[in-house]
Amino acid sequence: MRANYKLQRLYLDASLAEGAVVPLGREQAHYLMTVLRLGDGAEVLVFNGRDGEHGATLRPEGRKAASLMIGAQTREQDPRPRLDFLFAPLKVGRLDYLVQKATEMGVGRITPVFTDHTQLHKVNAARLEANILEAAEQCGNLAIPELAEAVKLEALLSDWDPARRIIFCNESQAGNNPTGILSRITERDLALLVGPEGGFSEREREILTALPFVTPIPLGPRILRADTAAVAALTAVQMTIGDW
After folding, report:
1. How far from the centroid of its chain's Cα atoms is residue 72's Cα?
2. pTM for this structure?
3. What pLDDT sits at residue 8?
4. What is the number of alpha carbons within 13 Å of residue 47 lying toward its C-beta?
5. Can you give the pLDDT of all 244 residues of the chain as single tens digits?
6. Which DSSP category does 169 fall into?
7. What angle do CA 209, 128, 147 make, to 5 degrees?
8. What is the structure's pLDDT at 221?
9. Phi, psi at residue 176, to the nearest 5°?
10. Which of 44, 50, 162, 226 counts the most CB atoms within 10 A of its CB?
């Protein structure tokens, strides 16, 4: 069932059960009452990534505080998607975009990966989490992607479960259309690996293409920016062998 986009959706870091009263943090109370100008009794939708989606009723408690009365469940909890997203961190503005789009596209886990050509060598996990939650609120997701700790590519590959196939966006791969290669993949536990600006180094490409659990794919005849490549690749995977 799709989300009800007529009502405001809100992530709550609390257990959700019909009849419960959940106090809102100052920022969320301000957003609902001051920014959106919702009043006493206004209806919203809430989720926490565990208990499905519930209706809720706003209960102001003064000018700056409020709580939500949790109502009946409107959608059952979705399982976390089986697609992991592995990416080289980009500059901050584009990094925000990348994480938001990966969440919207339905990934189950997001892992920043440091490569030879990665320009950003430190990530702000709290900022990434905030972008994940904001995207989940806006696009109707119930399953919230897990944010994994940033890791170097070699360390990631050395600890990798070979039962989960990595789809590797390789700018040097022959051909333009990835769907033929993707359609031959039989595994359903998958990961998509997207490189940094400037692409993977030759050394990294040699390591990746030598691994039996890695499948390289092309992404068309044009050179794509890293954030564009990620959205294009996620679309191709979801449409060909994903949950679309």
Report:
1. 27
2. 0.91
3. 93
4. 26
5. 566 778 999 999 999 999 999 999 999 999 999 999 999 999 999 999 999 999 999 999 988 899 999 999 999 999 999 999 999 998 878 899 999 999 999 999 999 999 999 988 889 999 999 999 999 999 999 999 999 999 999 999 999 999 999 999 987 777 789 999 999 999 999 999 999 988 899 999 999 999 999 999 998 888 888 899 999 999 999 999 998 8
6. E
7. 55
8. 87
9. -120, -35
10. 226
- Contacting residues for 54 by C-beta, under 8 A, at least 6 apart: 16, 18, 45, 46, 47, 70, 71, 72, 73, 74
**Dihedrals φ, ψ of 12, to 5°?**
-120, 130
DSSP calls for 54-119: EEEEEEE-SSS-EEEEEEEEEEPPPPPPSEEEEE----HHHHHHHHHHHHHTT-SEEEEEE-TT-S
Instruction: For each of the domains in the chain, give its residue range(s) and CATH number, in order of start.
Output: 9-75 (2.40.240.20), 83-240 (3.40.1280.10)
| pLDDT at site 125 | 95
DSSP 8-state code for residue 198: T
Q: Which two tokens stand for residue 116?
A: 């030879």
Hunting for tokens 């259309």 — which residue is that? 177
- Provide the token pair at 112: 């920043």
Cβ count near 75 (within 10 Å): 16
Sign of CA dihedral 68, 130, 98, 96: positive
In sequence order, the 6+-apart residues with CB closer than 8 A to the CB of 24 are 32, 65, 66, 67, 68
| Range 209-218 burial, b when 16+ CB lie within 10 A, else e | eeeeebbbbb
CA 130 – CA 144 distance, rounded (Å): 11
